[in-house]
Amino acid sequence: xxxxxxxxxxxxxxxxxxxxxxxxxxxxxxxxxxxxxxxxxxxxxxxxxxxxxxxxxxxxxxxxxxxxxxxxxxxxxxxxxxxxxxxxxxxxxxxxxxxxxxxxxxxxxxxxxxxxxxxxxxxxxxxxxxxxxxxxxxxxxxxxxxxxxxxxxxxxxxxxxxxxxxxxxxxxxxxxxxxxxxxxxxxxxxxxxxxxxxxxxxxxxxxxxxxxxxxxxxxxxxxxxxxxxxxxxxxxxxxxxxxxxxxxxxxxxxxxxxxxxxxxxxxxxxxxxxxxxxxxxxx
Length: 283
Fold this sequence. Notes:
It is built from 5 helices and 5 strands, in the order αβαβαβαββα. The chain is α/β, with parallel strands linked by helices. It has 2 domains: about 5-20 and about 245-280, ATP synthase, gamma subunit, helix hairpin domain (Helix Hairpins), CATH 1.10.287; about 20-240, Pyruvate Kinase, Chain: A, domain 1. It has a 5-stranded mixed sheet, sandwiched between helices. Helix 1 (about 5-60) runs antiparallel to helix 5 and helix 4 packs across helix 5. The radius of gyration is 28 Å and the shape is elongated. The two termini are about 35 Å apart.
């Protein structure tokens, strides 16, 4: 049976843990609000560029530009897996890794590119060949960081003759709900819509250069949006996990306090009995 001092130390330890988890919950909530604001800012810009690309593709269905071509039936595939750099976010990373295994099973020859330390550590440990990796991206959420990643992926696609690049990430829905999404990043698939202008445009300098510029800008914004979605989903998962951990710590403190009071009462009762027995013996 634990002594009163051991129980008291255990209670203090759990109280300290509760303070840490509660602080982490509040930090995650603050980062989540920032990520949500940035997502709302990024979406309209990406949608407008997509509309322009959609108009170009529909007016020129025979385009051979690599950013808008149809995917061939055979060829090399790159698979980008977006995880977090840190843990303590519930099943956020394990769900992504589980879905990644399903994709790899269907596309066993796909080259893996990891965004985030957790995914890189896992696939490196499990002897998967990693073509490229980017870690520490989510420490400072900045558009310039995502732009560098997007440029490297664009160069990889254009120079290494991949037929497509798919991205697996957690799409943010709410603090308690994230949707695991596999999206084709390249070549770009313009979103289907009836709202396409029928006007004829004069392109200057020419269509291919405009497709190149718009396509690169779209990929820049799309990678930024994917990183924001993943970051928001991560912070939502962490906030939920830390909230649950804080509640569990509070419950454990109540249980330990009750156990401490019972042990103390038992010790007091024992002392009283010993005193009474000693007094009786003296008489």
